[in-house]
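can u pls check wat happens w/ flavin mononucleotide
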Amino acid sequence: MFYAGTLCYSFIYAGTNTIPAPYCADIERVVEKSAADVWPEKPVAAGSSAPKGKNPHACVRTLTLLGGQTVGKKVLMIDGSARRRNTYNILLQIEQVLKTHGTKVEILNLFDYQIEDCIGCEACVSCKECAKKDDMPILMRKIMDSDGLILSSPVYMSCVTSRFKTFADRTNTWVHKPETVGKPVMFVATTASTGLKETKRFFELFATGFGARKGGLVARSGKTLGKPVQEKELSRFLTLLAQDKRYYRPAMSEIVMFTVGKVLATKSTGDDRRFWEEREWLNRNYYYPCKMGPVRNLFSKLMFRVISNAMR
Ligand SMILES: Cc1cc2nc3c(=O)[nH]c(=O)nc-3n(C[C@H](O)[C@H](O)[C@H](O)COP(=O)(O)O)c2cc1C
């Protein structure tokens, strides 16, 4: 089901892969301006009141009211672009905003790591070690150790770059044994003009597959590349980062993905079942106690029956 969903993309490329030189200069200016003039140099800790005046970080106060905490949280940003240009510049601006919330930020580029193509042996599904020996365990460990994740890619042929896709394929084990349940994840995409909708859909399916809490998309196309990143574009991600996951209300699509995993684990005779049992997920309507309400709980139970019957 997951495979079918993720593979349904259109490949309409109507854009151009070059950003006119003035844009690049604009972006560089924006990044410099963002760091030096727009945002306060000193981090604003959740829990303290935001400085008066021009501070655009209004949602710090909201987070404080919710009893949230972003200070000291580790955010990992993953860049799927071969060059440090449009997407990277957006990440730098996001880093500035996050730092004002006291978070620690690491930006890594997938091109700096050795990532082999998946060969489809399905060793990861049958609970054996991946056949490929490369840097994927390092990347997966970094993701697991982070408190929040930002996945980014330029739009290539209405989807993420092949590098990002290769990386995503290699995390397939997490579709069966999710190690990152409840992690806040935000997406960043830049494009010349087209493909944002499809790329967003890819990112969302990917993150839903490993049980993440989705924190929205920051997107820029040719016309808006020079537009500075606003604090409000990150407010959902920051709120998720600060909040305990019991306040999360999973979308129906997330409940469906959970239920597919639960059915697969129930039918598995090996490691998958043990993995799900150890976490007590087989008795639950979602991975963890959260804002399900009676409708979502009922939906989860019904889905379990429907999917179990369909997979008989
Ligand atoms: C191989 C390739 C494919 C691309 N495909 C699309 C596309 O489908 N739609 C589009 O509008 N732009 C497309 N672009 C343009 C990039 O998405 C855009 O320039 C992006 O901002 C580059 O980001 P970067 O500077 O981080 O690499 C493509 C560029 C390349 C090189």
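The first helix runs from residue 2 to 7.
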